[in-house]
Design a protein that fits this description.
The chain is built from two helices and six strands. The protein is of the alpha+beta class.
Length: 97
């Protein structure tokens, strides 16, 4: 079993499986009853639209790989984030004459 400290993880780059850079590890959430990691908090990169927070919480179930050098997460996390900020189009309405 490999271990890593919170200090080693803080600031580590976060990537998707497809190689898209998401941001950097900012913080961790631990389960108090077991001491296990529940999630990582990722400070997003410079592309963040104003409509979303600059930090996202990635649950342990979406973490694919974790080393002091990098963290890899499921692509679904970024897909969900993108869907949350894409503009919604209004239903078609005829133009007034």
């Amino acid at each position: 079993m490999q271990t890593v400290t919170a200090h080693e993880l803080q600031g580590a780059p976060v990537w998707t499986r497809l190689g898209e850079r998401v941001g950097r590890v900012h913080d961790l959430t631990l389960e108090t009853d077991t001491g296990r990691m529940a999630a990582i908090h990722v400070r997003l990169g410079h592309w963040v639209p104003l409509a979303i927070p600059k930090t996202i919480v990635v649950p342990w179930s979406h973490i694919v790989l974790m080393t002091p050098e990098k963290v890899v997460i499921d692509d679904a996390v970024v897909t969900e984030l993108s869907l949350a900020v894409e503009p919604r189009t209004a239903p078609f309405a005829p133009t007034p004459v």
